[in-house]
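Every protein is a chain of amino acids, and every chain bends into a shape of its own. The protein below has been through that process, and both of its lines are reproduced in full.
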Amino acid sequence: MTLQIGETAPDFEVETTQGRIRFHEWLGDSWGILFSHPKDFTPVCTTELGYMARLKPDFERRNVKVIGLSVDPVDNHQRWSKDIEETMGHAPNYPMIGDSDLKIAKLYGMLPASASGDASARSAADNQTVRNVYVIGPDKKIKLVISYPMSTGRNFDEILRVIDSLQLTAKHQVATPVNWKPGDDVIIAGSVSDEQARQRYPDGWRAPKPYMRFVPQPG
């Protein structure tokens, strides 16, 4: 079964392009993004890895660590990174997990336990379910899971927006409405009574319905 929001992200120890890591220890007190790929030297994933490298400073400013996974050995990742830099202008500047035995893909429920343990004998189509994004909080709980088809490149600008929302709503008892962007109004959480809300927001709020209480984004 695919992991659900609120579950603890499974820990693992694995080789990456930046050395051996234990996942939870590597995350430390940071947020994290784990994004997975079905095969090295595939076109859509090549564009994604390069764009993520470009965005890495934006994630770092939000205390978010980035790690990739592809169902191939680390030495293939190293060779692939040259193609990524040549075509996208940025080589991966974050660790890439070598998952040639499919251990992590199975651990995270992206492949069935019965899947073959030899990645070299499997095509990208065999691994097409290994196309997920996981956002993990400092508490090691999964905050977001998005699964993508092979034909659709991921929107990492949207992942940044989601992280802004997750971090804001973790700090304040608010929720973010449809198409919210940083700086837009937010919604007072239903767990906050009107009396509590008046203490927090003495200038009041906009309420088109009693259960919809909009206020400026807290600082």
